[in-house]
Amino acid sequence: MDCPGLSLFPLHRCKTLHLVRHAQGLHNVEGEKNFKAYLSHEYFDAQLTQLGWQQVDNLRKHVRTCGLFKRTELVIASPMLRTLQTAAGVFGGDGYTDRADALPLMVANAGNSGRAAISSLNSPPFIAVELCREHFGVRPCDRRGNMSDYQFLFPAIDFSLAKTDEDVLWKANVREPTEDLIARGLKFMNWLWTRKEKEIAIVTHSGFLFHTLNAFGNDCHPLMKKEMCDRFANCELRSMVIVDRSMTGSDPATTNYPGKIPQGLDLPSDASEEEGPKTNSVI
């Protein structure tokens, strides 16, 4: 018998993703007034606005109140100033003090933010991944700075996956085609399966989220697909589960238990019913 509208999957074939769009950046303010502002070099690798930092503070409170902060095993951030600031601000530790055994997640006043340093103590590990950057090319706000500069501003974030210090992916006269961004998004999702973590926060961009998520959900209710794929607001978080339906993953289940320990006779109850009624049986 089919169970319409429901799907059931083994837990170890799933990962929980907490998807976050960065908080308001300087480019967002002017771009909403005039779309051509996105082409201004004034907004190269735009940092967060003061309103953006308020959005970060609000989301920081939320992830702690709902318990998500303690469950998150890894934070992945697009290596751009606005996403790194958002990730550190939301998922960073509390009460930074200058300690030799713990680098700050973000140094004080990173990106002229006027913010205090953020601690890496009691926070998940952070890693920067270029696969989840915004559309490459043309718009200076989507051109990243040097990884060495980011490493100075965000000492406890792992930038080791970067292949080059300078941004060689951004081209002044060529905007990355949407189909290429989608392919990159799917490559990123597949890469997630190489990670051991099961609950991951990802801080990225509106365009990346919109186009990547639209590649999913075609087999579900239209309203569910809309819930997944609508454009994200600044500093919006949506939690989703991604399933390894093709059985490409090899991680064993960590919560399953084999049962029948110690060994003993264990005839299923429905099997005895199929054999028909028996006389003088003891139940």
Tally of helical runs: 9
Largest sheet: 5 strands, mixed
Low-confidence stretches: 279-283
User: Which term fits the overall shape?
Assistant: globular
Percent helix among the residues?
A: 25-40%
- Given helix and strand content, the structural type is alpha/beta
Give the C-alpha Rg: 23 Å
Q: What proportion of the residues form beta strands (DSSP E)?
A: 5-15%
State the strand order across the main sheet. 5-2-6-1-7
Describe the 3D structure.
This protein has 283 residues and is α/β, with parallel strands linked by helices. Helix content is 29%, strand content 12%. It contains 9 helices and 7 strands; from the N terminus they run E-H-H-H-E-H-E-E-E-H-H-E-H-H-E-H. The strands form 2 sheets. The protein has a 5-stranded mixed sheet. Strands 3-4 form a two-stranded antiparallel ribbon. The longest helix has 16 residues, at 50-65. It is globular. The two termini are 30 Å apart. Mean pLDDT is 89; it is low at 279-283.
Could you write a compact summary of the structure shown?
This protein has 283 residues and is α/β, with parallel strands linked by helices. It has nine helices and seven strands.
